[in-house]
Amino acid sequence: MVAPIHRQIHQAITEDRELRSLIVGDPCGPQSVRALATAITANFYTRLTRVSFWKAALTDSGVLALCGAIPNLHSLSILELVDADMTQASCAALGKALTDRNSPLLSTLRLDYNSLTSSGLASMSGALRRGACHRLACLSLGFCELDQQAGAILADVMTVPRCALKELNLEGNRLEDAGWEELSSGIRRNTSLAVINLSNNRFGNSSAAIEAFRDAFAENRSLQTIDIDGNLVGDAGAVVFTDMLHHCPHITEFKISSTVSPDLYRALKVVVHSHRGRPARHQDRPASKTKHARQQKNDDAKRKALIDEFLESQAMQRLELGSQRRC
């Protein structure tokens, strides 16, 4: 008979007092976490560098118990509470635990698939700012029921002095156009972010929001990977981003909904593909600058031709539609 998960955890950490990583991928409930928190508070297992609970059904009471032990985990670098049945009720406790003067400075914080809401995020904002200005490089808040208010909160986090944040995941929330406009101000002023996932956030209805992101993506020269798939960015928005990418060689991956016009989707992919490997070719073969310039000129011509072809086809469709209506 398999022992309950909390007994398995206890056995594992009893056999190895030098345990560095604790990863639980089964439902264990708050009881197991309370036992672990008690052991940590008693100065056992304080060398843990990673604590990960995935679908562990911790609930708020389990998260609260863990929060009481976090200040004793001085070496903790990675904290993952994914699909943990955590709500905004325990966000304040987590925020307080991570701002304690003795608390660890995390490099990775993943809280995906929890009902945090923007109110819960606001109660953790102090901890996120503290982490971001030290060593928090990865923040993942996918499917956390964040709304428009989260945009301003996260923009504030991204603009702390010496921000260390390199990866931000906001997939599956509801920031919509208003939240994206607020977030774009933070992206524009940030100088560390390399990867951002903004997919499935109901954004793209407003031309102002699209233009705000265009300007933010263009000005943030550290950005390399951008995902805006699953949003409401139509052909008009795709044209805006394609033109922007033409002037942003630092962006080497850009995901957008494949529901846009096939010609325009192909044009955007051609632009992004041309950015890959460009610095390496320039460094490895300095004697071929003329050839490189000629290739870049050809790529530019191809991009322009594809975009012009798309715009011309759209204009023809409008003329044909107008003729049909007059008839």
From TrEMBL:
Coiled-coil annotated residue ranges, if any: none
InterPro entries attached to this UniProt entry: Leu-rich_rpt (IPR001611), LRR_dom_sf (IPR032675), RanGap (IPR027038)
Lineage: superkingdom: Eukaryota
CC terms in the record's Gene Ontology section: cytosol; nucleus; perinuclear region of cytoplasm
GO molecular function: GTPase activator activity; small GTPase binding
One GO term (biological process): nucleocytoplasmic transport
Chain intervals for the UniProt region annotation (Disordered): 274-301
UniProt xrefs under Pfam families: LRR_6
Keyword set, alphabetical order: GTPase activation, Leucine-rich repeat, Repeat
Protein name: Uncharacterized protein
Organism: Plasmodiophora brassicae
